[in-house]
Design goal:
Length: 283
């Protein structure tokens, strides 16, 4: 019998706590946490994500500024906006919605964000801090996965954890966070030979590949904890994860659904990182 890891309920609980901490910070210091979200171009999915982030900020009492720039924005213009936000005392977190249009360098833009305001933790100096294990912010999606494990009393220490996917925003930082939590971590990717031989050994399996229902029950160890980061549309346009929920749930001890699993935790961790940045600013 499996148990669902309910990301929606967990996110709501954490957001209530963030709202309370925000109120206390305002009362104590007069500081309102501020997040600036920068979006360039008209990508419909990016617009939805930015809108959701804006709404989430308002719900917990943050200041939220959205900078919607036209597709043709030049690199220099974008960098000067980042410079202005870096020195704006009302703003504690800066997030640039990715992907950027092709003519802009994501690397250069992220590198320009001041590390103290880099609430996505993509800036190379924050990546370095995550590698050495002493960091203020972790990238939101892997941080959300760690929070779910903690909330459900699942301790990765000494466990065999397999992460499928090695992207800079999910797979790699996920592996590092699990390693810092004393797991034995294997990272798989598209060149991994015999993927199932690795996934079948996992006590905790985290999948972030972007392929609808790719992980099937024969690839999962009985009793495993299965965390599905994937967000895909199936052939009928229905939102689904990278894990075949209906068959894998029969074998798992815990499993995250899609939607309602990891997804709601990502924005919650963005709020948490922004509040942390504001609290540090107040010290
Ligand atoms: P990327 O496309 O950047 O990375 C995908 C990774 O999966 C790569 O490392 C790739 O390997 C690996 N991969 C692809 N195919 C296979 C395969 N057949 N076998 C093993 N590994 C494979 O994706 P992201 O990390 O950005 O995102 C992954 C998924 O998570 C997507 O569905 C995305 O929408 C979702 N996502 C969800 C979030 C949330 O809040 N819930 C947040 C961020 C992402 P290689 O490196 O060799 O190419």
């Amino acid at each position: 019998m499996y148990a669902i890891i309910d990301g929606k309920a967990t996110a709501e609980k954490i957001r209530a706590d963030i709202k309370q901490r925000t109120k206390e910070l305002k009362e104590r210091t007069g500081i309102t946490p501020g997040l600036a979200v920068v979006i360039v171009g008209d990508d419909p999915a990016s617009k939805i994500y930015v809108n959701n982030k804006h709404k989430a900020c308002e719900q917990v009492g943050f200041l939220s500024d959205v900078y919607a720039l036209p597709e043709a924005t030049a690199q220099d213009e974008l960098l000067s906006l980042i410079d202005r936000l870096n020195s704006d005392p009302r703003i504690h977190g800066i997030l640039v919605q990715l992907p950027l249009p092709r003519h802009l360098s994501e690397q250069a833009v992220i590198a320009r964000i001041s590390p103290e305001k880099d609430v996505d933790a993509f800036n190379i100096s924050n990546v370095g801090k995550i590698v050495n294990g002493k960091f203020d912010f972790a990238p939101c999606t892997p941080a959300g996965v760690m929070k779910l494990l903690t909330e459900y009393g699942i301790d990765p220490s000494g466990k065999d954890c397999v992460v499928v996917g090695r992207s800079n925003i999910v797979g790699k930082p996920m592996a590092l966070l699990l390693m810092h939590a004393n797991a034995t971590v294997t990272v798989c990717h598209s060149r991994t030979a015999d993927l199932a031989s690795h996934t079948r050994r996992a006590d905790i399996l985290v999948v972030a590949i972007g392929k609808a229902r790719f992980i099937t029950s024969d690839m999962v160890k009985p009793g495993a904890v299965v965390i599905d980061v994937g967000m895909n549309r199936d052939e009928n346009g229905k939102l689904c994860g990278d894990v075949d929920f209906s068959s894998v749930s029969e074998k798992a001890s815990y499993i995250t659904p899609v939607p309602g699993g990891v997804g709601p935790m990502t924005i919650t961790m963005l709020l948490e990182n922004t509040l942390t940045a504001a609290e540090k600013h107040s010290i």
